[in-house]
Design brief:
This protein has 2 helices and 7 strands; from the N terminus they run βαβββββαβ. By secondary structure, the protein is α+β, with helices and mostly antiparallel strands.
């Protein structure tokens, strides 16, 4: 969030973002496991060759970003651009983008 991106907390929006990004898995599974990123993220287990879309919703996930404590297991947040606060900011934002929601994968 410090660079202007916000976590995606909604399962539908998470799945839509994964689809727009062309990810292999576009079905988000909610989790409240501590230590996972806040909101929508993509998990890759490089050793096992597994990957999946997750939605970190637990209170201990708040503020957590990419988790790479195990080099073979990567958790990369999928974020959206924050919604502008004023009508003027919205109009300026609308001129700069062609989509209603932009997504970004940290990694």
């Amino acid at each position: 969030a410090s660079i202007g991106y916000q976590p995606i907390h909604d399962q539908f929006d998470c799945e839509l973002a994964a689809l727009e990004l062309g990810l292999a898995d576009t079905t988000a599974f909610p989790t409240d496991f501590a230590g996972t990123p806040e909101g929508c993220y993509y998990f890759e287990d490089l050793r096992a060759g597994e990957e999946g879309l997750w939605l970190g919703l637990g209170k201990y996930n708040t503020g957590k970003g990419a988790e790479t404590s195990d080099s073979d297991k990567l958790r990369s947040p999928i974020c959206s651009v924050g919604v502008p606060a004023t009508t003027q900011e919205f109009e300026q934002h609308a001129k700069r983008t062609t989509t209603t929601r932009e997504v970004f994968v940290a990694g």
